Amino acid sequence: MCLIRYRLRLSKWRDSKMHGIWVGVCTPGNEPHMLPILWQNSSLTHWQISYCILALYTLCDLQFSIKLLLKSKNTDHLKFFTKALDVENGLTVTRICACVSQVTFPVRVFKLLGVETLMVTNAAGSLADSYSCGDIMIICDHINFPGLAGLNPLNGPNDDKFGPRFPPMSGVYDKSLRKMAFDICKNMGVSQYVQEGVYCMVGGPNFESIAEARFLHRLGVDAVGMSTAPEVLVASHCGMRVFGLSLITNKVVKSYEDNESVNHEAVLEVSKMRSEMLQTLVTELISRMDINNNTA
Ligand SMILES: O=P(O)(O)O[C@H]1O[C@H](CO)[C@@H](O)[C@H]1O
């Protein structure tokens, strides 16, 4: 539903220095936020590109941003890309579809397009007692519950072109990007809202029972949500650098004495409240990453 509020504009944004294309993500009445997209000569079908755009829309809606680094201009693909932007009716597909291989498909498309860094954001409930609603948690690690139970996007024959059969999952969330994010938050004067912690993905779509919440808390989980781990897993498998943020939208109920209960509307409300701060953080992170890349 919110997805419709966002528009991706392609035509105007070109950056000759980077030999590529910029995509501007606009909200009504706001200046566009720039996402650099440089195009690589690849043989993607129109359908694949549409899927990629679909993912971009989803990402933007979730305050989930992305850095795409492609390597050359290809006007044929550019036409496809522009055309694919019209596919608004398909936007809900990734949210409805529960299949981890479909949800992670765009990550591999991005990889083929030359994407080097994946930035993920999500809404999550806090289990850590020191967290408050509206905090931003920089993800330092995750527990992939569906993955541990066998629901893993890397199931099936391994495609060695992307990565190894048994990829390591230690150190997935890039340390230098995490530090950069902390520094940016300090400069923004919002350090008091920033945490670092462990995200746990559960299958959902229900919120946790009290016993489940206590169980996760004892496992060392700081925030829980229903997404992110599969995309991160696939990105890491194919050698992409990963950075992740959780916006703490609610406290997970852990006590039988507590009469509160979480609901999706409250989650959306907090997301809206913090969207500007998250956008500033992500935009600044992207621009600093550019500086790093250019000077590297
Ligand atoms: O993880 P994202 O997609 O940000 O959304 C989170 O918020 C929704 C529940 O309100 C769930 O989909 C949960 O995963």
UniProtKB/TrEMBL annotation:
InterPro entries, sorted: Nucleoside_phosphorylase_d (IPR000845), Nucleoside_phosphorylase_sf (IPR035994), Purine_phosphorylase (IPR011268)
Nucleoside phosphorylase domain span: 98-286
Catalytic reactions on record: 2'-deoxyinosine + phosphate = 2-deoxy-alpha-D-ribose 1-phosphate + hypoxanthine; inosine + phosphate = alpha-D-ribose 1-phosphate + hypoxanthine; 2'-deoxyguanosine + phosphate = 2-deoxy-alpha-D-ribose 1-phosphate + guanine; guanosine + phosphate = alpha-D-ribose 1-phosphate + guanine
Pathway given in the UniProt record: Purine metabolism; purine nucleoside salvage
Keywords, in A-Z order: Glycosyltransferase, Transferase
Signal peptide: none
EC number: 2.4.2.1
Domain of life, source organism: Eukaryota
One GO CC term on file: cytoplasm
Keyword Mitochondrion: no
MF GO annotations: purine-nucleoside phosphorylase activity
Pfam families the record matches: PNP_UDP_1
Gene Ontology biological-process entries: nucleoside metabolic process
PANTHER family membership: METHYLTHIOADENOSINE/PURINE NUCLEOSIDE PHOSPHORYLASE, PURINE NUCLEOSIDE PHOSPHORYLASE
Family to which this protein belongs: Belongs to the PNP/MTAP phosphorylase family.
Name of the protein: purine-nucleoside phosphorylase
Annotated organism of origin: Cyprinus carpio
